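Standup notes
- DV: blocked on the single-chain target, sequence here:
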Amino acid sequence: MLISRILGTRAERLAEPLPPRGLRVTLYVVLFLLGVLVSLCGAFVQTLWAPAGLVLALVATAALFYGGLRATGTKLGAGIPLGGWFLVLMVLLAPRREGDLVLEASVTSYLYLFLGAVAGVVCATLPTRSGFAFGVPPLDGQRAVRNGRP
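- DV (later): unblocked, structure below
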């Protein structure tokens, strides 16, 4: 019950109107940059303050993905920051010429990668009222228009 108060019910999420297209495009750019920043900060926080840092980094990651979904009203709102988050982590996983790694091969690093990706995929598959809302039935008025009836 507390979770539905914080995150909103399915009916509330589906009833929210979509922001105008120009605002959504701006939000996508901002969300991509936030995904990059959260990924970079999370990579260091989860290592510095393990295990509490791992929890903090995962909460920030999931909050960004879910916030993007709710702010834009589209699945892309969760997918865009996930792309920025993942892109930075792939760069941080690559060894440098000197042999240094930003993300070491440790349990906390692997948990950050796996659970962060799971959080992004879960948020990207939540139902929305966008034109690409797979699995969400249209409203009665929209169904009649799609079938060619007034």
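- Follow-up: The CA atoms of residues 46 and 52 lie 7 Å apart.
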